[in-house]
Amino acid sequence: MARHFRKHWKKYTFGSIVFTLGGSYLTRKFRDRNVIREYCEEAKQYGEKGISVLDRPKKVTVFLNPMANKMDAKIQFKKYAGPLFHLSGYDVTVVESEYEGQIRTLMGYIDPECDAIVVAGGDGTIMEVVNGLMRRWDVEKTRTIPIGILPLGRENRFYSRFFSSRLSLSQTRRISEAAMDIIRGATVPIHMLQLEPESGKTLFALSSIHWGVFRDSLQIKDRFKLFGKFRLLMSHVRTVLRGWPGDYSLRLWFPASSRSSSVGTMPPDSQVANSPNSTTSEALNQTAVGRRKIEPTRLVARRTEGWQERQLDVVGLHLCLEESASLEERLKTVVWPADLKKWDFIKQGWSASLGKNVPPVPGTLSVDSSQLVLHPQSGGVSWLNIDGEPYEAMPLSVTVLPSVIRVFTKQS
C-alpha cells in the first residue's frame, strides 16, 4: 500500500483534495437546507393565522438591486427571503432597479398605506430608499412606515453596525433571520444624519462619513485581492509609500457645549475659538499662519455665538452616528493630524477594519456633539464617503435627527 501510494502520490493527493472540497460543499448545502426548512416552518405559522374578511393581507414593497454583490443579490433574495414572505401570507411587490438613482425616484410614488418597505441590497440601496422617503412632501406620514434591511450587498455597513451580533452567522441564516425580523414585526426607532450642503439637495445618512487618506485606502483595497484578508493592510501600506501624507486641511465648527478632547498636544497652527462669549464671525477671522485660508461658508454665517472653531492640517476625518449615546453626543467625530506617523496610520486603519478599539495617537481630535459644520479642502479633487457612497468633498452642515424612522429588529 505504501509503495503504491509513493508511486501514484499525485493521484492520491488530487483525490484527497476533491473529496475534502466535495464533502465540505455537501455539508454546507445540507446545513443550508435545514436552516431554510426551519425558517419556512416558522413563517408558515404566521401565514396560517386567520384574518377578518374586512382586513387585507399585509402589503410589503421590496426594492431589490439585482446588481448588488456582483449580481448575486437577486438569486439570494429568491432563494432565502422571498419564500418566507409568501409563506407568511404577505402581499409582496418586488421592484427591481435598472439604474442608479431609480429607487430614490420611485420612493416618491410608494403607497402610504404600505405596511413595510424592504431594502434588498447594500449601502447604496439603503441610502436611495432613505433619501427618497425623506424628500417626499408627505414625509411626516410616510416616515412611519417601518423599513426592513436584507443584507444582500457587498458592503452592509448599516446592517453590520445595527446587527453586529449576527456577523458570525452564515449568509443563509443572516438573510433568513433578517426576513423573519420583518415577519415578526418588532420595530425600533433609529436616528439619522441630515447633511446640508451649501447648494443642492439635502442628503440623509444612517451610518458614517469618511474623508482623507483613510477613505482613499479603503477605495483601493480591491487591487490587493490576492492578499485575501490582508488586502486592507496592503492598501494602507501602499498609501504610505505613495503621496504620503497628502494635502488635506479642515475647518470644523461645533457647539461650545460639545465634548471635545485632544490626545497629547495639538499642532501649533490650529486655531481655536473656545469662548462662549465670542461670536462666530470673530472666530472665523482667525486663520492659521502660513496656511491657505478657508473662507467661511454660508452654513457658518447663520451661527451667531457659542460655537467653537478648529482649523487643522489633517490626514483624515471619520464621523459616525452612535445610537446608544446621549442626544448631545451621538455624533462621534475623529480627526487625525497631518503629522500622523506612517506606522500609526497602518495600525489604526488595520485594527479598525478588524473591529478593534485602538487608543488614539497624539494630536488626534475627538468631538462628541449633536451637530457640526465641516469644510474639507485638499490640493486636488477629494471625495467623501457617505454611508459607503462617494460624493465630491464639499462644506456640510451635519445634524442628528433623533428617532426619525423605524426599522425592523430582532424580537427581545
Keyword list:
Rossmann fold, Tumour Suppressor Smad4, 2 domains, 412 residues, 35% helix, alpha+beta, 13-stranded antiparallel β-sheet
Textual characterization of the structure:
The protein has 412 residues and is α+β, with helices and mostly antiparallel strands. The chain has two domains: 148 residues, Probable inorganic polyphosphate/atp-NAD kinase, domain 1 (Rossmann fold), CATH 3.40.50; 196 residues, Tumour Suppressor Smad4 (Sandwich). Helices cover 35% and strands 27% of the residues. The chain has 14 helices and 17 strands. The strands form two sheets. Strands 5, 6, 7, 8, 9, 10, 11, 12, 13, 14, 15, 16 and 17 form a 13-stranded antiparallel β-sheet that branches. The protein has a four-stranded parallel β-sheet with strand order 2-1-3-4, with helices on both faces. A hairpin with a 2-residue loop joins strand 15 and strand 16. Helix 4 packs parallel to helix 9, helix 10 packs across helix 11 and helix 11 runs antiparallel to helix 14. The longest helix is centred in the first third of the chain and has 39 residues. The radius of gyration is 25 Å and the shape is flat. About 8% of the residues have low confidence.
